[in-house]
């Protein structure tokens, strides 16, 4: 039996956030991507479901225009050459009624690596406009260096760099069932 109504669900960009955090010196910088599209194709057997997402990397927003411009540059995402980041599922495992593991392939700057997302199913129901929505929260972690994003500045007198390698991802998504 399916946890979610089988069908095609499109991400609602107004109610979805694709966010991240990364260590910077003694704190963490947080940001999000403002432009993306994606769909979930849910099956009666939830483990046969598929997710595809495409993110416009130039839509990065950390709240600081100069930093965002630097992140778009060839030091980081090189958005002129590699404008998109994509994710496509390779498998879904159900852990409980509301917990899943979604494995897939994440591509950034032409490099594809596996990504495991822990997903919490937040519910399904009607909306005020006559549609049906589903909500999930997904978390995961990547190494930016594995994707060729290795710009950094050494910190004088310390045995570390200014920017951490591990990027924490958090996706809060709402998707609408297509008729």
What does this 3D model show about the protein?
The chain has 179 residues and is mainly beta. It has a single domain, classed as Lipid/polyisoprenoid-binding, YceI-like (Lipocalin). Helix content is 4%, strand content 56%. It is built from one helix and eleven strands, in the order ββββββαβββββ. A hairpin with a 5-residue loop joins strand 9 and strand 10. The two termini are 21 Å apart. The model has no long low-confidence stretch (mean pLDDT 94).
Short description:
It is built from one helix and eleven strands, in the order ββββββαβββββ.
Ends distance: 21 Å
Number of domains: 1
**Average of per-residue pLDDT values:** 94
The count of DSSP E runs of length 2 or more, i.e. the number of strands, is: 11
CATH class: Mainly Beta
Order of helices and strands: EEEEEEHEEEEE
Neighbour order of strands in the largest sheet: 1-4-5-7-8-9-10-11
Shape: elongated
The CATH homologous superfamily name equals Lipid/polyisoprenoid-binding, YceI-like
Rg estimate, integer Å: 17 Å
